[in-house]
Amino acid sequence: MNNNYNVDNGFSTAVQAENERTLQQYVATVMRKVYGKMCLGLLVTAITSFAVLHSETLMSLFFSNQMVFWILAAAELGLVFYLSARIERMSASTASAMFYIYSILNGITLTPIFFAFTGDSIALTFGITAATFGAMCVFGYVTHQDLSRFGSILIMALLGVILCSVVNLFVHSDTMGWIISIAGVLIFVGLTAWDTQMIKRMVAASDPSMMGTVATWGALSLYLDFINLFLYLLRFFGSQRD
To answer: What is the pTM of this model?
Structure first.
């Protein structure tokens, strides 16, 4: 009886180990899709900015009238909120299409940074952002520490930074601007690790039929982390044009 128990227990352990390996392979597959789609979104954004920057027609269309720029910014903000709220109800193809539309809009609204900062400093900041982002993604993916308790703290801190940024639009305080930038870098460094772990857990708990939608949602979350981290780091490493 005791031997049968050991055999059965060994069989059960073997099945559990195989299921765990299968789950890990599934998670790794979806996470590759997440990062691939995020990188493609960044590429779409970069190509869009480059195209607008080198087209007098597009520059005139988007930036000759300040109202057009604000309409684009509002559309961009509305799209990301809509995606975040309804992505679970969308088909994978619709979610992907909207993600890339958002990447295009973001590319348009980011074009002015090329007039404010030198190309070399933008490239340097992008490299620093990529290295920092990559390190935090690795940490978030492999750590066994539960980062969920930091999530609410980071979100509240982000809301505080947004509120301070709005106030600083009227106050024009350089000191407050630097404090906001430092806080922004720290927040999005933390959010990158937290989002990575959260996406990994969501993938593990999701149905395989939702793979495409989950990958798009994860790509959007990490895309936003990368872009915001880049913009805050640009305050420190960007060189102003003369």
So the answer is: 0.89
